[in-house]
What does this fold into?
Amino acid sequence: MMTREEYIESLRKLNLQVYFMGKKIDNPVDHPVIRPSLNSLAMTYELAQHDEYKELMTAKSHLTGKTINRFCHIHQNTTDLMNKVKMQRLLGQKTASCFQRCVGMDAFNAIYSTTYDMDQELGTEYHKRFVKYLEMVQERDLVVDGAMTDPKGDRNLSPSQQPDPDLYLRIVEVREDGIVVRGAKAHQTGAVNSHEHLIMPTLAMREDDADYAVSFAIESDAPGILMIYGRQSCDTRKMEEGADIDLGNSSFGGHEALVIFDDVFIPNERVFMCREYKYAGVMVERFAGYHRQSYGGCKVGVGDVLIGAAALAADYNGVPKASHIKDKLIEMIHLNETLYACGIACSAEGKPTKSGNYLIDLLLANVCKQNITRFPYEIARLAEDIAGGLMVTMPAEQDLRDEKLGPLVRKYLQGATGTNVENRMRVLRLIENITLGTAAVGYRTESMHGAGSPQAQRIMIQRQGDIEGKKQLAREIAKVDVSLDQKPAGK
It folds into this structure.
């Protein structure tokens, strides 16, 4: 396994094509806007080196028997699934941001079982290829950007019906030695901090959409790949000289990018689906389930930090014992632990696939993510309520440091007797960062749209909810004689 330092140096060796605000970034590793997100991802390497965290952060590869980073692991039992969620909560607590490595882990497990099923039915060799690829990833301890979401264009049209066929990533040429692809993947978490991109189709496909049913892996700096770094609220604060307090979280962050594939060649050994459209929906469903499970860990860890910051704000405001403050903190904890319970529950109810790796309970995973689309917003609202209006009207750090203005800021921003004004400002800026600033991308908006927007989970809940089975339970208890019904409801 790589150390934190080795990981950072490995990124320096890549020839990435990255653009931000209209300019090419020659050194993404040290760019002030990008570096905090790199620090968050580096924490996945750092904690794996600590004895106290190794149970959660590492696992034994079922392929090689070697100890590997859990982010490169194929789940072998329900304990693996639960340890994944616990690991994600830990990393959320340590970074208060998105640590960007979950999507690749979830893609590994979805593609692993799907390629196995494809080979069994179709006689292909995709699973064999993928296993060989995964062994390389585990051996080198790589960060892999799992990429599913396409730009999608007109959502009312299928991929093949789009006026611009490139709005879904597609195969434009099949060669004897590989394929050529064109298109883009949007909202790609941690793409600039990744060694590889692992591509999946974005939705279930029909025969007309076969060119869009494609899965493959490719190096992040392969010819034809260009990344446009996404904007975040308050992101240019990181570019201010000496910025610290106003950042809220000066060390850690997350990022997303638009990743463009301009006629990129993929060799056969890295192709895991090529026009097998019937399996596109299977891969999507399994990946979505794993990733919806993930949110029961990572968002909960960030929630732990936000709850702590809200409690500190109450201390600095001088109202920690007020009954309504206590009640709001209790509600925040209740909501946060409910999210965690869903993540653990769908893991504990996991079952083995035909390939041998474990899949979470899909119904509970979708319930988990449905709650994630709601509860973090309420936790954030309560944190803002407790923090007070000063969180969004507070003078700048430069004013605090100014010879003339500093004494005035310290005089009029004094909170509870005996507390430090600068510490109060730091806590309020942290709450701002998580609820409104750069971290809000990962805590609020990603909670809504990541791993599928709310309606996607509701569709899966309906599909997995077994309404007919529940009707039968009611019939048996009520002693319903179905032969007396001329036309049973729902038929």
Q: What stands out?
A: The CA atoms of residues 233 and 437 lie 5 Å apart. Residues 4-277 form a domain with the Butyryl-CoA Dehydrogenase, subunit A; domain 2 fold (CATH 2.40.110.10). The first strand starts at residue 18 and ends at 20. The chain has two domains: 4-277, 284-466.
